[in-house]
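The methods section describes the discrete structure representation at length, but only in general terms. What matters is that the chain and its backbone geometry are given together, residue for residue. Nothing conveys this as quickly as seeing an actual entry. For illustration, here is how one protein appears when written out as sequence plus structure tokens:
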Amino acid sequence: FPVTIMVLNNLRIIVFNNNGGGIFKLIDGPDSFKPAQPYFTTPMKVNVKGLATSFGLRYYQANDLKKLNAILNQFLDPMNTCAVLELNFDMDANAKAFKKLMKKTSK
């Protein structure tokens, strides 16, 4: 059966990609038991660009703020068709930054 997918032109999808399972480094419990980390985090390499383009969606990627600022207007432009924006994060750096932010905001 051929599959027909109706996609709304104004749909924007943002993928926060830390290669899987990074949430468990952010919450209390799993983070405190380091030997279990490989069981909580599930690192995987997903080809977001391949998925997006296979469905005919525009694809953008940003690894830093400079790149994000350069592409954001085009990504959000309502005159363009549906798009996917992949934001890549290092799982460990993300966890450290999150914990630092939580300490600041809990004061």
Notes: The chain has a mean pLDDT of 82. Residues 18 and 107 are 28 Å apart (CA to CA). The beta strands are 12-17, 58-62, 83-88. The two ends are 58 Å apart (CA to CA).
